[in-house]
Amino acid sequence: MKIKAPLLLIIYLLSFNSYAFVCKTTDGQNVSGGTQRINNVPLQNDIFEVPDRINIFAYVDDFMTCRNEAPSVYIDYLYLTDIIPGPALARNDIQSGAVVNGTAYTAPMTGGEVRIFRLASTATDSLNIQLYVKVDKKPAADIVVKKGDKLMTLKLHKYANRKPSTTPIDHAYFQWDFYSGTDIILGTGTCDINGNKDIIVDFETVNASGISTTGSESRFQKQVTLTYLCEDSSVNQNIKMVLSGDTSPFSDNALLVKTGSGIMQGLGVEIYKDGTRISPLSGSFLSNIANGIGHDTLTFSLVKKGNLADGDLIEGDFNSSATIIMVTP
C-alpha cells in the first residue's frame, strides 16, 4: 500500500491540471478546447445607427463563460489570436471585427495575440468581447443574412502557469463560430431615415365595411413622408429602399397585423409607392439622394381577407410593424 499511495497522488494531480480551465456554452456544455458552434446570434436591422459607425451586434459573454477551476493553484490566460468574418460580412465596403476590453480589432487580426483576461485570484472574469460591423458613410449593397449563416469566427489560445512558476503549461486552443439566429436584410451607410425614429401610422377608428380586399380601394389610407439625411452631405447617388416585414396569413403582399398577443387573421396593411404595391417580402422602390438628402411619400392602406370567417376580424387595438432599409440598386 505504501508503494501505491504516491502513484495515486500523481494521477490525481495530473487529472486536476487537465481540467483546471473550462468554458461553458449557453446550452450547458463544458469544453476545454476545440470548435464550438454558437447559434441564434440575434442580429438586428438597427445595428447601423450609431455615430461612430462601429456597430456592436453580439456580446460574447451572452453565449460563453470561462472559469479557472483552481485559482489558488493556477493562473490562467486567455488570448484572442484571430478574427475571421463570415461570408456575408467578408466584403470590401464594410469592416468587421471584435472589441476586446474596449479596443477594436479589425478582421483579420495582425500584430499578434490580444489578451482577454488573466485569472489569478478569482475563478472567473467577464469575456469582454463584442463583435462589430463598421460601415462606410455612403450607402452600399445590402447585406443579406439567412438564419444559420456564419457571421464570424474567433480563434483563441489559453495557457496556464502553475504558481509560483511562470512557465506556460496546459495549452488549449478554441474556435468559436457565431451563426445568425434570423433571416434579415441589413442596410449599409450612415444615411438616416426619419432621423432614426419610428414611423408611426395611426389609422385611428376604423370599421370593417370601409376596408376593401384591395388596399388601393380601401377607405382607410394614410400617407407618410420619409426623409433621408446622410452624414456625408456630398452623397449624390441613386438608392433602393427595401421593405422587410412579416406577411399576413392571407396575403404575401400585406403586412401581418396583431391584436394583443394574437394575430389578426383577416386584416393586413399594404404599402404603396406612386400607386405600386410594395411586398413585405423584400419588396423595394427606387429613389435618390442629392447633396446628402432625399425624401419619398408612401401610402399605407388597410386590407381585409376575402370570405371572412368568424373571428378573422377582432374589435380593439391592432398594430403592425416593418423595417425600411436603404441600399444601392
From TrEMBL:
Which chain positions lie within coiled-coil regions?
none
The UniProt keyword set, sorted, is: Fimbrium, Signal
Signal sequence interval, chain numbering: 1-20
SUPFAM superfamilies in alphabetical order: Bacterial adhesins (SSF49401)
In terms of InterPro entries, this protein maps to: Adhesion_dom_fimbrial, Adhesion_dom_fimbrial_sf, Adhesion_dom_sf, Bact_Fimbrial_Adh_Pro, FimH_man-bd
Could you tell me the Gene Ontology terms of the biological process aspect for this record?
cell adhesion involved in single-species biofilm formation
Q: Which family does it belong to?
A: Belongs to the fimbrial protein family.
Protein name as annotated: Fimbrial protein
Q: Which organism is it from?
A: Morganella morganii
**What lineage is this protein's organism placed in?**
Bacteria, Pseudomonadati, Pseudomonadota, Gammaproteobacteria, Enterobacterales
